[in-house]
Amino acid sequence: MVGDRDINLHPSHISDGVSKVSLFHVSLLVCVCPPLFYDHTHVSSDCLIPISFSATRSSLSLPLRLNPLLVETQADRPNMFYDLRNPQIEEALFLPYVNRLPNAIDFCQWVTSPPLHHMTLWHRKLPWHIVIEASQPNGITVYDLFRCIHQQLHQSIAQEDYYTDALAPGDREELTMAFQLRCTMFPDPLPAGVRRIDFLGQEVCFIGLKRGRGGRWEVKTRLQLPKERMTIVGYIFILFFH
User: Residues 139-163, buried b or exposed e (16+ Cβ, 10 A)?
Assistant: First the structure.
């Protein structure tokens, strides 16, 4: 309201002389950082997202950013650590960077900003893709990500998957050893034989995602170091028994 007159910016109310000129183009920097991306006082420049608005057409350009919790790092301590063989999710995930288990707020964060509703993951040792779908209209959350990964990697394989020509005899031997080790470490109350997770061999610890071509994301895994295993077990013991 200016001077008791409403200002109408609908295109039909703009004069021909003005409509031939680009009215305005504004570039803003908006920091999109979901709650508890570690520490609000340490916001990376990667969180800055340029947004372009145009009055003459509907356009919105937002570079896709991965949640810092899920970014693969070459550091000794990954941002997020998860033994994918573990049948539990909440008790198996660990945040080495802040030395704690994830909480409800961490699980509710978006995987990307702006949020996606569908993602396709791949791993160099898996002959299958992992499809991630949002459970809510808001977009894929951290919990959605690990729920879908867990569900699909813990599916039993078909007989043709085991005897496929893509596997050499040595690969089948490694697959069998991975299956036996998993059953020893995480006894299965309902034995279902070899599962997809066993195709990862010993590289079963999730340490992040890496964006690839065609909108796909690579799952990055590695061996679990004894020091990391003891740290996680010790933290869980203190949390639940003290």
Answer: bbbbbbbbbbbbebbbeebeeebee
Same domain, 138 and 235: yes
3-state secondary structure (DSSP) of residue 161: helix
Per-position DSSP letters for 100-143, written without gaps between them: B---HHHHHSBSEES--SEEEEE-TT-SS-EEEE-SSTT--BHH
pLDDT tens string, the chain, 242 residues long: the values are 444 444 343 434 433 443 333 333 333 333 334 443 433 333 333 333 333 333 333 345 679 999 999 999 876 788 999 999 998 888 889 998 888 999 999 999 999 999 999 999 999 999 999 999 999 999 999 999 999 999 999 999 998 898 888 888 888 899 999 999 999 999 877 677 899 999 999 999 999 999 998 899 999 999 876 555 545 455 445 445 55
Last-in-domain residue among 63, 80, 107: 63
CA 181 from chain centre, in angstroms, equals: 27
Reading the block at residue 217, the tokens are 């994301």
Q: Say how far apart CA 67 and CA 111 lie, in whole Å.
A: 5
In which domain, by residue range, is 5 found?
1-63
Instruction: Indicate the number of domains in the chain.
Output: 2
Q: Which of 63, 92, 114 is the last residue of a domain?
A: 63
Same domain, 143 and 77: yes
DSSP, collapsed to helix, strand or coil, labels residue 233 as helix
Separation between Cα atoms, residue 61 and residue 170, nearest integer Å = 48
Radius of gyration of the chain (CA): 24
Do both 233 and 205 map to the same domain? yes
Query: Do 135 and 90 have their domain in common?
Result: yes
